[in-house]
Design brief:
The protein is an alpha/beta fold. The protein is 39% helix and 14% strand. It is globular and about 35 Å long.
Length: 114
């Protein structure tokens, strides 16, 4: 399953395949042209309440992932995204500064473990 995770502020690369933004909010300071993405799937991102609760606090990471997995279990966009990943490389884009603990990392983990 070719799924990659990349910060939206990093330059696009030929190996990115289909680039999909998985943030609920548009990242600051980046134009839609510079983002070079195929789609913005804001409805697959964590709920606003979960995002605010997490607040990018490392000590909440494990609980954030657990709660986000619960949200993904009933999200109708998961299967179509899995199908796209099955057809070729997909890069999940995010805007957070933390490259190891963000919703795109959690989503990629969820998609590859199922």
């Amino acid at each position: 399953m070719p799924v990659q995770v990349k910060r939206i502020y990093d330059p696009a690369a030929p190996g990115d395949g289909e680039r999909i933004l998985v943030d609920r909010l548009w990242p600051r300071g980046i134009s839609k042209e510079k983002a070079d993405l195929g789609e913005w799937m804001k409805d697959i991102a964590p709920s606003a309440d979960l995002r605010k609760w997490y607040g990018h606090k490392p000590e909440r990471w494990d609980e954030f992932r657990r709660r986000y997995r619960e949200e993904l279990e009933s999200n109708p966009l998961v299967e179509p995204l899995r199908e796209r990943i099955g057809k070729g490389t997909v890069t999940l884009l995010y805007g957070a500064r933390d490259r190891e603990r963000n919703q795109a990392v959690a989503l990629a983990d969820y998609l590859t473990r199922q």
